[in-house]
């Protein structure tokens, strides 16, 4: 950076003269760049970050889909607010849509109809906005699953995981608020359901209901209030949290999958400028383009078919948007439990699957990194991701959770299932009542076994190489399939993971000095830890690999492999080369 | 403040196979073959070049296509403006993205680089420096000597939140026992109020109803209310009237004069979370809620036979007036809609309801 | 043939034989029966007689020889010609096999045969007659009348048949059928007669003008262009499914392309 050569004021830090020459700035943008740098010190800010490295993997782009959907939502949302009127005042519709002519409806619904039929492109933007909302939550979900299964939530990223859970939870509120705004029959039915859900909260239910709805359902304030929540409160929170989420990603640098040259101490990939800027920037336009094309070709939330909200009407197939479907499913399959205590009613049949399940989900998600840390006693920083098979219990827990979620979700469409597949509605419901408990357990057991089998297969592959598919007949008539050794890169990838072991019970007053895993492991913790680590396959040791390599060499067709190959520490590479030659 | 340091691994135990280091860079086809590179270059240009064309098409469509026009796609009729604007705009946007990515993949240098990563934690020197700075600040604040200051500030900050919270006490009316009696515990049904057809407001004669008939009805007085009041009252007062063969249903002693020759009237508001229910099967007499599939038996005082609802559907006592019109005998005897905390709904199951 | 011989003494053999014989009879009758007369108004008594003959062959096993009903099927006394016309011309009757509900299928009867059957059922007792076009036609209604039809539809019908008339689920395997492509006449008949689990909507409560408004609303609704693929118009479940499959699925494929290494020189 060019610094002023001579200083004419008392303060040495201030430049009062034009720097003699904007040295070092890229040509072409010299003027602008210098102007900006003199005011905000852009160069020192960007010099570190312009070539920041991002690893390249498709699953690292899932969070980007969510981010870009959010930007699309902001852009399309601003457009919609220009015409939308968040008012529950009743008017008589005299607009262009003839099948509603003369009906009493709220201004909110009438303005939604106007957006759909009178504003050119309004319907398109409405549909883009709604599809982008579906994509937003869906992308967050798959992004979160990727983080979970690869263990990216581990130290030092626990805070970012919590921010992510926070983002996920308020996105559901954001989505629901948006779903309620048009005041059509479906959104009004959804609001009424929420009214019942709020009412079911023990002790404060009725009060919360009256406070939120300004009295009885539906009242005249809930849509203006939800509008404020939808376009100001929650988007503001989302923006702030997303900024913190991304700042932490930049600070920690992105995690990476295991592979040759990839270590906890580095990050391997492409620089931000220009490759990642082009890829990620291009992906924004791709996501936007896909959302627009979805809006152009796939109808969503046709409010003019639902009609204005009328508390005496309802339609078959009344469902929330997909991300609330699991709550809907839980409510549908819940048995009718109510308590009556001392003149009060405790509506567990609504509270537990509604408020209870939602809060439970976010508590479990938020607590998981800390639970796992408690079980493993792992205090190290992790930047290389786990392969899901290498942590069978975590993976199995994740799949069990997904199964439970999916079953609840399917239960939320039990009527659609019944009609589309000619099943009995009651049978579907009763099956689901059992399945949501049994399904996750089965999923857990199966997934854990699959992970362990995959670990075993990895171990086999490292020790014995890959199957060649060639059947050889030996002179004495036996048949065998020779195995070809695998590349050193793959061998490294398959063996680089940490071999976790269960915690042992250690008394509080341990005399062995400072233990790395923390002194004072209780009996319960040790027991749980044993369960968590149970079944894992020991990864091959260096000695085993060496022995196996020599074994393979001994069977090699060429005479290259001989015993007493000098073990100079490069034996792995050597045997790799020899096996390559023998292939 | 302690920091966990990484365990010095037994390198051979930790990594049984030595890290071979980054894979060597292999040239791409587009780097090695000039014609392939040129082709990729042309492709990127073509994609970007199509965008202005599509943008112009978008503008032309916006002004030229009438709002009511539709297009025929595989036999389906689609709204023309939505489809054509979305198609041009969407493809244009998509092409910008695809062009940038194609450029990055085929033309930009693709050598992977490694960047060192540092522990998220600050260095011990930084921590010490921070601790020293903090100590200086703490000393300067005077908190060390005048300890009450901290507590007083904390208390002040904590309590200033109370007025902020109290400000929200007027979010809605307070559902005290008196207000509940006026709102969620009552509907506008009253003695002598005519049952009229919803939407058409036609009064209903008992003789108009056939066995197996379902009528979605409202109190005649509903239309005295307007705007929000209309919606609030409709949300509670909506009813369904059904006519069943009196021989085939169970009518408890206490409700014999709540019906007229097998014409029974129930609240349309589900006792689960309040959806309006009218999926009535005229042969089984079961009433299903389309929201969560609670099923009520209308031939047996509206008891729950399936699903998550815990309370019977409230029944409205009705009779006929001198002109043969159906009228209510009173309001509902129990509140309609979902249960709420302050009221023990267990007593709703009076003798004969089960 | 050994199979048949072996099963000869089976408990179900005799009833099965009976059904087989009946079917044979029916087929034989259909083959030998005189060609259906062109006109439907050649005299009611003759139509009733023809209807009765047809009834006794194809309907009486469940509904009784004179439509008085059996344990297998309800009495048809007083259900009216509208009911018979609806059930037979929509293919619901005769039922192919017993189930939770008789599905709509292609009717195997000619118009004349349906008319004869309806006339016979009507002769059993007074009930709703087959409506004339003026009673159900939704044509020529004003926008306000159509809008009112929409309100009536959403108040009385959409709870079972869905907001777009796409149908919906009922308890224990039953369902409300789709209303797409259902004629105004059949809608009128169904409302007036309450087929299967559907409740009755009698003319005293919903007069013909209301039915016309509903029919007109549905016809206009189904004729208007959509704003893209509708996925069967079954609501948010399908929308969520396609957001995942097309949206997330498609974007993941593109993400895989973005991160793919591409063609290498060697």
Provide a descriptive summary of the structure in words.
The complex is a heterotrimer of chains A (583), B (354) and C (266). With 583 residues, chain A is mostly helical. Chain A has a domain at 53-386: Cytochrome Bc1 Complex, Chain C. Helices cover 58% and strands 5% of the residues of chain A. In chain A, helix 19 runs parallel beside helix 20. Mean pLDDT of chain A is 88; it is low at 1-15 and 556-583. Chain B has two domains: 25-106; 180-348, Rieske [2Fe-2S] iron-sulphur domain (Rieske Iron-sulfur Protein). With 354 residues, chain B is α+β, with helices and mostly antiparallel strands. The longest helix of chain B is centred in the first third of the chain and has 31 residues, at 34-64. In chain B, the strands form four sheets. A four-stranded antiparallel β-sheet of chain B has the order 4-5-6-7. A four-stranded antiparallel β-sheet of chain B has the order 8-9-10-11, with no helix packed on it. A two-stranded antiparallel sheet of chain B has the order 1-2. In chain B, helix 3 packs antiparallel against helix 4 (80-106). Chain B has helices at residues 11-14, 29-32, 34-64, 80-106, 124-141, 148-166, 177-182, 227-237, and strands at 70-73, 76-79, 113-116, 195-197, 214-219, 239-243, 263-267, 279-280, 286-288, 295-297, 303-306, 318-320, 326-328. Chain C has 266 residues and is an all-alpha fold. Among the domains of chain C are: 16-124, Cytochrome Bc1 Complex, Chain D, domain 2 (Orthogonal Bundle), CATH 1.10.760; 133-158 and 181-223, no CATH class. In chain C, helix 3 crosses helix 6, helix 5 (80-89) packs across helix 10 (184-193) and helix 8 (143-156) packs across helix 11. Chain C is flat and about 85 Å long. The chains are: A mainly alpha (583), B alpha+beta (354), C mainly alpha (266). Strand 4 of chain A pairs antiparallel with strand 3 (113-116) of chain B.
Notable traits:
A: about 575 residues; disordered N terminus; B: about 350 residues; alpha+beta; 2 domains; four-stranded antiparallel beta sheet; 8 helices; about 35% helix
Strand order of the largest sheet of chain B: 4-5-6-7
The biggest beta sheet of chain A reads: 2 strands, antiparallel
Which architecture of the domain at 53-386 in chain A does the CATH hierarchy give at level 2?
A: Up-down Bundle
Q: Can you give the helix content of chain B as a percent range?
A: 25-40%
- Low-pLDDT residue intervals, each spanning 5 or more residues of chain A: 1-15, 556-583
CATH topology of the largest domain in chain B: Rieske Iron-sulfur Protein
> What order do the strands of the largest sheet of chain A run in, or round the barrel if closed?
1-4
């Amino acid at each position: 950076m060019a610094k002023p050569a001579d200083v004419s004021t008392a303060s040495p830090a201030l430049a009062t003269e034009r720097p003699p020459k904007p040295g070092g700035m890229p040509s072409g943008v010299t003027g602008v760049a210098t102007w900006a740098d003199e005011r905000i010190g852009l160069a020192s800010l960007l010099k570190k970050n312009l070539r920041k490295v991002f690893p390249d993997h498709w699953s690292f782009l899932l969070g980007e889909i969510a981010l870009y959907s959010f930007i699309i939502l902001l852009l399309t949302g601003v457009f919609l607010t220009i015409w939308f009127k968040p008012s529950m005042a009743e008017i008589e519709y005299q607009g262009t849509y003839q099948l509603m002519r003369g009906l009493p409806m709220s201004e909110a619904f009438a303005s939604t109809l106007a957006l759909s039929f009178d504003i050119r492109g309004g319907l398109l933007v409405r549909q883009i906005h709604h599809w982008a909302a579906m994509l937003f939550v869906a992308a967050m979900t798959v992004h979160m699953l990727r983080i979970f299964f690869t263990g990216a939530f581990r130290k030092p990223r626990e805070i970012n995981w919590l921010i992510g859970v926070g983002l996920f939870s308020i996105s559901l509120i954001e989505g629901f608020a948006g779903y309620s705004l048009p005041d059509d029959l479906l959104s009004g039915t959804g609001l009424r359901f929420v009214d019942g859900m709020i009412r079911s909260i023990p002790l404060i239910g009725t009060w919360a209901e009256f406070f939120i709805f300004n009295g009885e359902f539906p009242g005249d304030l809930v849509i203006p209030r939800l509008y404020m929540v939808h376009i100001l409160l929650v988007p503001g929170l989302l923006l702030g949290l997303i900024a913190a989420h991304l700042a932490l990603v930049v600070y920690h640098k992105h995690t990476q999958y295991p592979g040759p040259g990839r270590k906890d101490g580095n990050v391997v990939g492409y620089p931000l400028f220009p490759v990642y800027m082009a890829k990620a920037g291009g992906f924004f336009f791709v996501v936007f383009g896909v959302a627009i094309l979805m809006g152009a070709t796939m109808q969503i939330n046709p409010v003019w078919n639902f009609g204005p909200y009328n508390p005496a009407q309802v339609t078959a197939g009344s469902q929330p948007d997909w991300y609330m479907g699991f709550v809907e499913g839980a409510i549908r399959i819940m048995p009718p439990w109510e308590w009556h205590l001392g003149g009060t009613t405790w509506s567990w049949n609504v509270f537990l699957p509604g408020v209870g399940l939602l809060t439970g989900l976010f508590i479990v998600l938020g607590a998981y990194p800390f639970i796992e840390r408690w079980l493993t006693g792992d205090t190290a920083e992790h930047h290389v991701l786990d392969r899901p098979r290498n942590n069978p219990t975590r993976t199995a827990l994740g799949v069990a959770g997904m199964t439970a979620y999916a079953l609840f979700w399917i239960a939320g469409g039990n009527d659609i299932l019944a009609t589309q597949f000619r099943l009995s509605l009651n049978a579907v419901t009763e099956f689901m009542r059992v399945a949501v408990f049994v399904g996750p357990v089965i999923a857990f057991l199966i997934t854990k076994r699959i992970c362990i089998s995959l670990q075993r297969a990895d171990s086999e592959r490292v020790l014995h190489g890959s199957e060649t598919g060639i059947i050889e007949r030996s002179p004495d008539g036996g048949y065998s399939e020779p195995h070809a050794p695998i590349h050193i890169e793959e061998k490294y990838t398959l063996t680089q993971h940490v071999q976790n072991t269960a915690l042992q019970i250690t008394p509080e007053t341990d005399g062995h000095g400072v233990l790395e895993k923390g002194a004072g492991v209780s009996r319960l913790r040790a027991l749980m830890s044993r369960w968590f680590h149970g079944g894992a396959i020991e990864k091959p040791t260096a000695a085993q690999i060496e022995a196996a390599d020599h074994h393979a060499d001994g069977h090699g067709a060429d005479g290259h492999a001989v015993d007493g190959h000098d073990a100079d520490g490069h034996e792995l590479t050597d045997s790799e080369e020899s096996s390559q030659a023998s292939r | 403040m302690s920091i966990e340091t990484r365990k010095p691994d037994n390198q051979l135990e930790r990594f049984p196979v030595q890290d071979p280091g980054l894979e060597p860079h292999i040239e791409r086809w587009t780097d090695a073959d000039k014609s392939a590179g040129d082709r990729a270059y042309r492709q990127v240009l073509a994609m970007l070049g199509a965008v202005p064309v599509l943008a112009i098409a978008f503008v032309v469509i916006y002004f030229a296509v009438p709002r009511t026009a539709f297009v025929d796609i595989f036999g389906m009729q689609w709204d023309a403006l939505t489809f054509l604007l979305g198609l041009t705009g969407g493809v244009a946007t998509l092409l910008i993205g695809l062009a940038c990515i194609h450029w990055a993949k085929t033309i930009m240098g693709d050598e992977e680089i490694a960047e060192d990563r540092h522990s998220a934690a600050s260095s011990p020197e930084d921590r010490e420096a921070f601790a020293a700075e903090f100590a200086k600040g703490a000393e300067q604040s005077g908190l060390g000597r005048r300890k009450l200051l901290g507590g007083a500030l904390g208390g002040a900050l904590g309590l200033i939140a109370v007025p902020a919270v109290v400000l929200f006490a007027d979010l809605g009316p307070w559902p005290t026992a008196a207000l509940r009696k006026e709102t969620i515990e009552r509907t506008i049904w009253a003695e002598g109020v005519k049952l009229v057809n919803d939407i058409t407001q036609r009064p209903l004669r008992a003789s108009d109803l056939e066995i197996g008939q379902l009528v979605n009805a409202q109190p005649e007085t509903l239309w005295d209310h307007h705007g929000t009041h209309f919606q609030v009252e409709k949300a509670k007062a909506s009813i369904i009237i059904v006519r069943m063969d009196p021989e085939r249903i169970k009518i408890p002693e206490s409700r014999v004069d709540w019906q007229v020759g097998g014409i029974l009237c129930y609240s349309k508001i589900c006792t689960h979370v309040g959806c309006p229910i009218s999926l009535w099967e005229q042969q089984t007499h079961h009433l299903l809620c389309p929201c969560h599939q609670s099923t009520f038996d209308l031939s047996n005082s509206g008891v729950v036979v399936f699903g998550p609802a815990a309370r019977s559907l409230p029944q409205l006592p009705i009779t006929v007036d001198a002109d043969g019109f159906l009228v209510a005998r009173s309001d509902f005897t129990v509140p309609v809609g979902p249960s709420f905390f302050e009221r023990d709904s267990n007593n709703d199951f009076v003798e004969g309801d089960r | 043939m050994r199979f048949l011989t072996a099963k000869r003494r089976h408990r179900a053999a005799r009833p099965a034989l009976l059904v087989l014989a009946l079917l044979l009879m029916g087929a034989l009758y259909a083959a030998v029966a005189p060609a259906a007369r062109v006109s439907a108004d050649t005299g009611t008594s003759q139509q009733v007689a023809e209807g009765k003959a047809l009834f006794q062959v194809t309907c009486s096993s469940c509904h009784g020889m004179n439509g008085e009903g059996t344990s297998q099927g309800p009495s048809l006394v007083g259900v009216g010609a509208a009911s018979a016309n609806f059930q037979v011309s929509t293919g619901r009757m005769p039922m192919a096999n017993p189930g939770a509900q008789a599905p709509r299928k292609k009717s195997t009867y000619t118009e004349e045969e349906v008319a004869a059957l309806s006339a016979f059922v009507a002769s059993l007792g007074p009930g709703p007659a087959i409506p004339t076009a003026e009673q159900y036609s939704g044509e020529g209604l004003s926008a306000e009348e159509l809008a009112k039809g929409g309100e009536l539809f959403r108040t009385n019908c959409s709870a079972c048949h869905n907001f777009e008339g796409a149908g919906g689920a009922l308890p224990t395997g039953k369902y409300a059928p789709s209303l797409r492509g259902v004629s105004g006449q059949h809608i009128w008949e169904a409302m007036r007669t309450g087929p299967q689990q559907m409740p009755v909507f009698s003319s005293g409560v919903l007069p013909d003008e209301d039915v016309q408004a509903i029919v007109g609303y549905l016809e206009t609704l189904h004729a208007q262009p959509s704003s893209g693929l509708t996925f069967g118009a079954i609501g948010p479940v399908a929308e969520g499914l396609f957001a995942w499959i097309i949206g997330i699925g498609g974007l993941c494929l593109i993400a895989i392309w973005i991160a793919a290494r591409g063609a290498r020189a060697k």
